[in-house]
Amino acid sequence: MNFFLTIILDGLIQASWLFIVALGLTLVFGVLKILNIAHGSFYALGAYIAATAVTMVAARGLPPSVGFVAMLLSVTLIASAVGLLLERGLLKMFYGRDEVVLLLVTYAVFLILEDVTKLIWGVNPIYATQPYELFGNLEFAGLYYVGYDLVLIPISAMVGFAIWFGLNRTVIGKIVLAVIHNEEMSVSMGVRVNRVYAIAFAFGVLLAALAGALTAPKISMQPGLSSDVIILSFAIVVIGGLGSVEGAAVGAILVGLARAASVHLMPQAELFMIYLIMAAVLMFRPEGLFKRETARRI
Amino acid sequence: MDRLWRTNRAVLFASVAATSLGLAVPASAQETFKLGIVTFLSGPAADSFGVPARNGAQFVIDQLNKGSVPSPYEKVGFGGMKIEPVIIDENGGATKQVQELRNLYQRDNVDVVLGYISSGDCLAVAPIAEELKKMLVLMDCGTPRIFEEAKYNYVFRTAAHATMDNVGLVRYMKAKNIKMESLSAINQDYAWGQDSRADFVAAAQQLYPNVKVQTDLLPKYGAGQYGTEISALVGAGSDVVYSSLWGGDLQAFILQSVPRGLSKRSQLVFSAADHVLPPLGDKMPDGTILGARGAYGLMSQKSPLNDWLFKGYEAANGVYPVQAAYRSTQSILGLKAAVEKAMSKNGGKKPSTDEMVAAMTGLEWPSPGGLIQMKLADGHQAIQPIAFSRTKYNPDLKRVDLVDIEYFAAECVNPPPGVKSIDWIKGGMQGAKCN
């Protein structure tokens, strides 16, 4: 029994931060119809910004809790600004072009951001572990878990709920949904679609950066961080259905549990298992588990 | 006027004759030795291996060019020729390295290429040097497969391969009466991780015949997050957890596993972990058993050569040298010994590639980490002594000290010539000379 509880808990911890990254990716695709290759770079950017904030706070002798708050605040401010700047300054110029062009533009942004992070933070691993000790350790299913890892689960659930609530229960959210479902009709009803695009893209960047910040205290930040994350995030949104919040949640949980189960039961199949699930979903539901099929407009 | 013309004509004829007949002309002080150096300057391996290797190489080249290295390396540069390094980043994968190696030989016209940390890169570049008939000195990579699966004339490795690390580690554990009825392992899923794991498990089964392998994990290189793996390792509760993880991966694994009590439940043994001691400091759990792939750094033995490297490197870089710096140093000193041996046989002129290859084959030379002997692979693969120890944090010096240090002779932990490492281990490590 404990063994299966361990797999579930490990899977949920893994799913928690992956869900936040995938949520940003799926939101941007849902609204802007852009498959954002640079999404993993925003995750890495968030992790690096968080590390800098935590290091600066620690250097002033302040407690780790201040570092935790500082990393969240700094990431929110910088990532939102970067998101808005990129959307208004770059992506806006390519709207209406072929989707492949936009894909290439985000790929270019990915390459640029890879080098920008190297220029700013260098190529050596960076650590910011102080907040990792913030919540102590807890015993569960006969094993010790770091409290910080467990706290990520409710944080991620809260972020997911906030996005769902924002989209489905607020006026702004309903406007965003209107743009997702029918852009032309939204424009004719007086919706400023460009503004919705900017807000949605900035939110997407913020979510990726937030996930990076939340994982920063437990990893070593080094070049190459972004590519692994973007591959896993794509797998999640493909499983859940591009543009679906619920799909991102279920996709993240499936990927997290599949990975945890294979590490515990069949370590050789760890990577294969994730893509096996993705292939199985694509075979039976090519549009993903949660994406609604839409009628083709004539 | 006539006399001047006759003199000039004589000089001209002499020069042409000397050039055309290839007469021995001693290497002049102005002549340089162009040395290609390949090491990680960026990427995950840069901090722990690539940059210390570059710093070690830079230090020893500066010292050699000034003639400031202790005996027997007092001579300036390589046989009087100043060393001119061309340093290349190893980051970017094996395909890129193959092209970079060709560029070094054919575009930059380097005399010798020395370097490579990644086992994958070493496996990829060795056949290229052989094809081009250019001398290649591998300084760091660990996989035994380089010379066990192929035969090379122009390729050398001046450091022992990973078999020594794992056989030595098991011998150390036996010598210190470490209990190991059960064993779990976590290694990276590529040549280095898989070969290290195979050697350690095989050696453990020889010296601990009843050992049971429990959890055996192979996360991908650069995984960074090990939460699930740590659950599996803690859950297994093995007597010993073995790992050949290195660099950022090893640091992340330690940072994540210590709060979860892995080091309290199992004896941690790391085959190549000395390089993470300076960055981790008090985050490294006391009592961890580790190796450095040689008798290096805090485990090095006192000698004039070691004092020169340890103090000089520390003064130049603000941190003491770890394994990669030692290996780049011993590699350059070995090449110097080979070049000067070749020059002693050819009348003191700059040696050709074939002359250097002949001189390097089977060579022995003293290094800060002990005597290096090119005894395996028909004189192309080095063996050397190794040390292991336990960690103990020193709050006064604010650094991790290494205690319980034990040294093993090269021929105790390396296979004899002509035998594949894994076969030697599985055959009971016959012929090992341990005192």
CATH topology of chain A: ABC transporter involved in vitamin B12 uptake, BtuC
Any low-confidence stretches of chain A, pLDDT <50, length ≥5? Answer: none
Quickly count the domains of chain A: 1
Q: Reading side by side through the largest sheet of chain B, how are the strands ordered?
A: 7-6-8-9-10-14-15
State the assembly state of the protein chains: heterodimer
The N- to C-terminal Cα distance of chain A equals 55 Å
The strand order across the widest sheet of chain A is 1-2
CATH structural fold name of the largest domain in chain B: Rossmann fold
Q: Which pair has the most extensive contact?
A: A-B, 39 and 35 residues
Strand % of chain A is under 5%
In words, what does this structure look like?
Chain A has a single domain, classed as Orthogonal Bundle (ABC transporter involved in vitamin B12 uptake, BtuC), CATH 1.10.3470. Chain A is built from eleven helices and two strands. Chain A has helices spanning 2-32, 39-59, 64-89, 99-121, 147-169, 171-181, 183-188, 193-215, 225-240, 245-265, 270-284; strands at residues 137-140, 143-146. The longest helix of chain A has 31 residues, at 2-32. Chain B has 435 residues and is α/β, with parallel strands linked by helices. Chain B has two domains: 2-161 and 301-383, Response regulator (Rossmann fold, 3-Layer(aba) Sandwich), CATH 3.40.50; 163-295 and 385-426, Response regulator (Rossmann fold, 3-Layer(aba) Sandwich), CATH 3.40.50. Chain B has helices at residues 2-21, 46-66, 94-106, 119-132, 145-148, 162-175, 191-207, 227-236, 247-257, 262-265, 277-280, 304-317, 323-345, 353-360, 410-413, 421-426, and strands at 32-39, 82-89, 112-115, 136-138, 155-157, 182-186, 212-217, 240-243, 267-270, 289-291, 364-367, 370-376, 381-383, 386-394, 399-408. Chain B has a seven-stranded mixed β-sheet with strand order 7-6-8-9-10-14-15. Chain B is globular. The A-B interface holds A 3, 6, 9-11, 13-14, 118, 123-125, 127, 129, 132-133, 137, 142-146, 149, 215, 218-220, 222-225, 228, 259-260, 263-264, 267-268, 270-271 and B 41-44, 46-47, 51, 215-220, 222, 224-225, 227-229, 231-232, 234-235, 247-249, 251-252, 255-256, 259-261, 279, 283.
